[in-house]
Design brief:
heterodimer; A: mainly alpha; MetI-like fold; 2 domains; 13 helices; globular; disordered N terminus; B: mainly alpha; 15 helices; 73% helix
């Protein structure tokens, strides 16, 4: 970063000839800089920023794939959207999914990280096992879960029956389907959160625990409350927001296992967007759903940066 | 001496809790392997047993490979993820070098755009990118699977942060030797950045091997299917009630990444938690 200014600064002292060559080098280097960033900048425009502007623009049109004409229709898509029961169901289900999966995956991730870190034996074995679901292709594991939740021959109902408890048609019953998807979501996200918490725990200075002990914090809980929890503040915020954004994007398990059913009980935003945009090809309407989704995701990011600023005071 | 007793108790409690949790985490994997090893009659019995009375893994695998062209789908996965990664590096590394080590007008603005780009979730741009590919007649091709991901703003950000830590002396020495700026990227910076490139590579390959949303949108042809699409189709069309072959197919699809992960856990965990920064 600073090398350019340094060489130019150093070149001011010697004679004009060296100065000119350095400047020539400098300008040639500027040209190279533009050459180096051009492919990235162009692709960014075509594949990222352009489409982002495009999706917002599309949401104000009645564009349909294959239709010969389209026109600006202002806020009509949004009016239709807000008048559509399916949209509100999808939004409610998405929020319910987020509200269940985020605390579930964050608390479990933290608990596992604390347990692993509280001893020294078998640390990496446990870490590997808990991380395995993060690695495994979610679609393949969703199919496995579906069979585990099979009403007659599944492992879950088999064990429930064995314990004398009632069995359920998990994914076929509108009162349980969303919760079953939440369970899969938590199962998949826990290991990821655990690893982030482990990194946070390792970076807490040992002296803090010693100091807390001298001050009378002898129980494990007191040490957690006085040292671990405040020191993990920034990491926790981060994990909560990341989990929130990822949960908002839930799609894979819904599409392969329930298609939003039974009777829309697992319909979620991105699935509605997919159905409207890529099955019915109502691009404008699907774009409006995307914009609503974007607003929520950016809101979460905003909350993160706000809290992260505050989190700095702890450390 | 007085606290000799509580320590083993706490250690035992730690293992009990962690093993119980681990059993929950591993249950789907164990059930998958167990079911893939059972003949049809044992799968459809109401009595639960983990170890098959009669091993049928080979039959189920053969059945799965006969019903779906799994090798082709795995190959597609390799072609797509490797192409994406190579192109991402070719685009991101020069830009990251320029952002980290060169001065030019618009640098700060470009970096701000990179940071902004990281916030955009992939689903947000799906409709316009799909329409562009449709206009260009590129839908249902490898290009449709690869092109939208050639730009990784996250990769640019990551490599730029890494290049910042490379000493300027190294770059200056290379310039003294008459190496061009372009040459510096590939002959000086890339070798210095191998750990960061590896981590990014794992992140990228895992993300795109497992991606379902985008291939689902742009693909139609059977012979182009990526592994996740293949499992979904197998479940919808082929499997019906034959869970043995379905579980065997799921095993085949997750095997490459899981095996790679078991061999290089530390690197994989590093690479994937990079998404945390996203």
């Amino acid at each position: 970063m600073s090398d350019g200014s340094m060489t130019i600064g150093a070149a001011i002292a010697p004679a004009g000839a060296t100065k000119r060559t350095v400047q020539a080098h400098g300008s040639r280097r500027t040209y190279s800089a533009y050459a180096l960033v051009t492919p990235a900048a162009v692709l960014m425009l075509i594949m990222l920023l352009g489409p982002l502007a495009g999706v917002i623009a599309l949401s104000f049109t009645d564009y349909q794939l294959g239709a010969p004409h389209f026109s600006w229709i202002g806020l009509s898509n949004y009016q239709d959207l807000f008048a559509d029961k399916v949209f509100w169901t999808a939004l409610r289900n998405t929020l319910a999914y987020v509200v269940i999966v985020v605390p579930g995956a964050v608390i479990a991730g933290l608990a596992i990280a604390l347990l692993i870190q509280s001893g020294t034996s078998l640390r990496s074995l446990y870490r590997t096992i808990y991380f395995l679901p993060v690695m495994a292709t979610l679609i393949a594991m969703a199919v496995v879960w579906e069979f585990m939740l099979h009403p007659q021959f599944g492992l879950v109902n088999g064990m429930l029956r064995g314990a004398g408890l009632p069995a359920f048609s998990w994914l076929q019953d509108r009162s349980t389907a969303l919760y079953a998807l939440c369970a899969i979501g938590i199962w998949q996200a826990v290991g990821f959160n655990m690893v982030l918490f482990l990194a946070g725990l390792v970076s807490i200075p040992k002296q803090l625990y010693e100091a807390a002990e001298i001050d009378g914090a002898s129980s494990g809980w007191a040490r957690f409350r006085l040292v671990t929890w405040p020191m993990l503040g920034p990491v926790t915020t981060f994990v909560v927001v990341i989990s929130g954004i990822r949960s908002f994007q839930v799609f894979d398990t819904v599409h392969v296992l329930t298609k939003g059913g039974p009777s829309k009980s697992t319909e979620v935003l991105i699935h509605t967007m997919y159905t409207e945009g890529f099955e019915f090809f109502r691009s404008g309407y699907a774009a409006a759903i995307t914009v609503v989704f974007l607003v929520f995701v950016l809101l979460l990011t905003l909350i993160k940066s706000r809290l992260a600023d505050r989190g700095v005071h702890y450390t | 001496m007085s606290n000799a007793h509580p320590i083993p108790f706490r250690a035992i409690l730690r293992h009990v809790l962690l093993i119980a949790g681990a059993a929950l985490m591993l249950a789907p994997f164990i059930w998958m392997i167990s079911t893939a090893s059972k003949p049809q009659t044992e799968i459809f019995s109401s009595e639960l047993h983990l170890i098959p009375h009669q091993f049928a893994l080979a039959e189920n695998l053969r059945d799965a490979f006969a019903r779906a062209n799994l090798l082709r789908f795995l190959l597609n996965g390799v072609i797509v993820t490797v192409s994406i990664f190579v192109l991402q590096v070719m685009v991101a590394l020069p830009a990251a070098y320029a952002l980290a080590k060169l001065r030019f007008r618009g640098r700060e603005a470009l970096f701000a755009l990179v940071l902004f780009g990281i916030l955009i979730p992939p689903q947000a741009t799906a409709i316009p990118v799909f329409l562009m590919l449709h206009k260009a007649g590129l839908l249902d091709s490898y290009a449709a699977l690869v092109l939208p991901f050639t730009i990784s703003v996250f990769g640019i950000f990551l490599m730029r942060q890494f290049f910042k830590t490379v000493p300027d002396d190294l770059v200056d020495a290379a310039r003294m030797d008459g190496i061009s700026e372009f040459g510096i990227v590939w002959r000086v910076m890339l070798p210095a950045a191998i750990p960061a490139v590896t981590a990014f590579g794992i992140f990228s390959v895992v993300a795109h091997w497992n991606d379902y949303f985008w291939p689902l949108i742009v693909l139609n042809s059977e012979q182009l299917r990526t592994p996740p699409l293949a499992v979904a189709h197998f479940r919808n069309n082929e499997a019906g009630t034959s869970y043995g072959p379905l579980m065997a197919a799921a095993m085949v699809i997750i095997a490459p990444l899981v095996i790679a992960f078991l061999f290089a856990q530390r690197r994989f965990i590093e690479g994937i938690t990079l998404t945390g920064i996203k």
